[in-house]
Specification:
With 280 residues, this protein is of the alpha+beta class. Helices cover 44% and strands 11% of the residues. The protein has a five-stranded antiparallel sheet with strand order 2-1-5-4-3, sandwiched between helices.
């Protein structure tokens, strides 16, 4: 699994044109964007030093150098943090092979959110737990236990493009891949993550293309549209809340606007989900 800085830096260089940083574009360019020597010049380091960094041979690189490169390449806060992580990987950093467990207290918080669809994501965007309304909206309980994973659903579930109307605009897909790559940067030796990326790359051309783009993005909040088979279209703002006691786990809560059509539909869906199953 590629979590070294080389491909990431090359992809960021390709976004910046010489004119964007006050340079003149002399001669024919074989690749788009800035050349290595131009990045080195603007960052105030030697070309050889920058080349070694792109080749993953710069474990002692300083914050000051990484800050300068981030400035030249116009990295946002998440990209900047990702660069620091992959440029100086922790020796032996890896995720445990054991299953992830949700603390009873966190599960109580999840269950207490009876009026809002909510679920808990773990490492690799595995779905670890959900409340009744979260299940009613997304259908986690219908997924095989080994496949309860958001990237798997987005890229390998045929119905995902109907469930998420914004899939066609690659908003949902691109954000999913960008968050998964962020996780990969933090855990470069995670075998389970490498297996997941390999499977998705093999089975989904869309995933393979987006993974090669090296976008990284955190998921703190946003808006997701869901085309529900029973409730119709739902416009769901969401918040992602990290768990201080459980690094790698986060609580995702959909929060429909009060008084909105989506809020009314969620209330009806909650009633439908709570209704007892008909007797045989």
């Amino acid at each position: 699994m590629d979590a070294d800085p080389g491909d990431f830096l090359r992809s960021r260089r390709a976004r910046i044109q010489p004119e964007d940083v006050g340079l003149q574009a002399y001669g024919r360019r074989r690749v788009p964007g800035l050349r290595r020597e131009e990045v080195a010049q603007l960052a105030g380091v030697s070309v050889d030093y920058y080349i070694r960094l792109e080749q993953g041979r710069g474990p002692s690189v300083s914050d000051a150098v990484l800050d300068a490169i981030a400035r030249v390449l116009r990295l946002d806060e998440t990209e900047h943090a990702y660069l620091r992580t992959v440029a100086r990987p922790r020796a032996g950093a890896s995720a445990p092979a054991s299953s992830q467990r949700v603390r009873p207290g966190l599960r109580l918080v999840l269950d207490s959110l009876a009026g809002a669809p909510a679920f808990i994501l773990g490492r690799r965007m595995d779905v670890l737990a959900w409340n009744a309304l979260g299940d009613a909206v997304v259908g986690f309980s219908r997924m095989p236990a080994a496949e309860r994973n958001m990237p798997r659903q987005v890229f390998l579930e045929p119905a995902a493009r109907e469930l998420y109307p914004d899939w066609a605009a690659v908003a949902v897909a691109a954000e999913t891949v960008a968050f998964l790559r962020l996780d990969a940067g933090l855990h470069p030796n995670d075998r389970q993550l490498a297996t997941l990326v390999g499977e998705l790359s093999l089975k989904s051309e869309d995933f393979r293309r987006l993974w090669a783009d090296h976008q990284v993005k955190s998921k703190t909040g946003g808006v997701k549209r869901i085309n529900h088979a029973v409730a119709g279209e739902l416009v769901l703002p969401y918040e992602t809340l990290g768990s201080a006691g459980d690094p790698g786990q986060s609580l995702v809560v959909y929060t429909p606007e009060p008084g909105s059509e989506t809020a009314e539909r969620i209330a009806l869906l909650a009633s439908w989900a709570a209704a007892p199953a008909p007797a045989d």
